[in-house]
Amino acid sequence: MTRIRLLKDGAIGRVVLARPEKKNALDQQAAEELFAALAQLEGDATIRAIHLAADGDDFCAGADLEALERTLEAGAEVHRADAEALGRVFLAIRALMKPVVCSVRGRALAGGAGLATACDIVLAHEDAEFGYPEVRVGFVPAMVMTMLRRTVGEKHAADLVLTGRVINAEEAERIGLVSRVVPAATFDDEVDATLQQIARAPTTALALTKWLFYKLDSLSFDDGVAAGVVTNVEARSTDDFKKGVRRFTERRSRPE
């Protein structure tokens, strides 16, 4: 049985966690299917934005503990393969040249919260909840901590991973874990409006913007500005930029 559904909606590719009976818990198969779906959408020139969503009441409860139980006595290589499968998904989301928008309903916990955090934009339903409760079961939120510290800062991140507490959407927005909290009445419409807004932008501009945004993590201030200069010049050479400037100046030159 497949763990995800892959849909194409015009310029938007939708990756849907499709295991609601298990609260969309992640196992190695789910991670491998996610990676394959993202790779397929990255290679599709018609897709400009990617939407990560989930079936059911909860976005994702984290790792599939029943699947983990079956490997408790397995060797380190088995555990490494399982962990690396999800790690590849986190890396792939950041490496994609297309923006990834995650919409979260219900609970996003542990690896599920990490999956949301890996995305470029996170839109949270007003009733959504987020948490990293791994320490409660003797586990470590190991791979997600790299993203979490960058997203919310050291003190907020330590609070979440050391207490394992679950927070509501309002607090998640306050500390920067999500981009926006969206009212229940307009949730679907606002998610789609955001995706459509992104999809209307030129693909090269989107790719260069996302690349530079995350590249800055590894650069000093001076090097970041220098990389910005290079990217600025590269953007000016694209046909999309030239057409955009000409459209703007043509509108300004028209008589009222």
Describe this structure in words.
With 256 residues, the protein is an alpha/beta fold. It folds into 2 domains: 196 residues, 2-enoyl-CoA Hydratase, Chain A, domain 1 (Alpha-Beta Complex), CATH 3.90.226; 51 residues, Lyase 2-enoyl-coa Hydratase, Chain  A, domain 2, CATH 1.10.12. Helix content is 51%, strand content 16%. It is built from 11 helices and 9 strands. The strands form 2 sheets. The protein has a 6-stranded mixed β-sheet with strand order 1-2-3-4-6-9, with helices on both faces. Strands 5-7-8 form a 3-stranded mixed β-sheet. α5 packs across α6. The longest helix has 20 residues. The radius of gyration is 20 Å and the shape is globular. The relative contact order is 0.11.
Please describe the structure with a list of short key phrases separated by commas or semicolons.
2-enoyl-CoA Hydratase, Chain A, domain 1, single chain, Lyase 2-enoyl-coa Hydratase, Chain  A, domain 2, alpha/beta, 2 domains, 16% strand, 6-stranded mixed β-sheet, 3-stranded mixed β-sheet, 51% helix, 256 residues
The tally of domains stands at 2
Q: Count every helix, treating DSSP H or I runs of 4 or more residues as helices.
A: 11
- Output the CATH homologous superfamily of the largest domain: 2-enoyl-CoA Hydratase, Chain A, domain 1
The helix content is 40-55%
Secondary structure tally: strands: 9
CATH architecture of the largest domain: Alpha-Beta Complex
Could you say which structural class the secondary elements and strand pairing correspond to? Answer: alpha/beta
Anisotropy-based shape: globular
Written as H for each helix and E for each strand, in order along the chain, the element string is EEHEHHEEHEEHHEHEHHHH
How much of the polypeptide forms β-strand, as a percent range?
15-25%
Give the low-confidence spans: none
